[in-house]
User: Which sequence fits this backbone?
């Protein structure tokens, strides 16, 4: 047995012309006062609010495409930056080992392994801040 919330969704769909009102919905409407008044309140809305707003799908599509391109460019830049940083650090590591600074390399690694996790909350916080700016 469906509850009133599920029927309300179906009623809303029917009022907005998304779907036909189903038989079980009709029989529920006949017996449930709450859903009846919900249905009537929807019908009482001014006609304009029930009409679908005309949306130019092409314009929306282009906007989405443009937004995705920006995201893609940003991601490509971040990937390149990451690759460059990785290669740089690997090169630095090799350079240190080849020049006899194994001790220094070990200390750097220990510092990164021990200190890195402490920076993580700051990175996460920064990312969340950035996300909020876009919203
Ligand atoms: Zn109901």
Assistant:
């Amino acid at each position: 047995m469906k509850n009133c919330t599920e029927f309300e969704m179906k009623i809303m769909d029917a009022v907005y012309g998304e779907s036909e009102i189903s038989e079980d919905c009709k029989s529920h409407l006949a017996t449930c006062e709450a859903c009846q008044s919900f249905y009537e309140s929807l019908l009482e809305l001014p006609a304009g609010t029930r009409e679908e707003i005309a949306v130019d799908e092409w314009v929306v599509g282009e906007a989405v495409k443009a937004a995705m391109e920006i995201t893609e460019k940003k991601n490509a830049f971040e990937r390149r930056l990451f690759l460059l940083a990785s290669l740089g650090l690997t090169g630095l590591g090799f350079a240190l080992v080849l020049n006899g600074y194994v001790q220094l390399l070990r200390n750097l690694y220990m510092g990164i392994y021990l200190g890195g996790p402490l920076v993580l909350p700051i990175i996460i916080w920064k990312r969340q801040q950035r996300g909020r700016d876009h919203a």
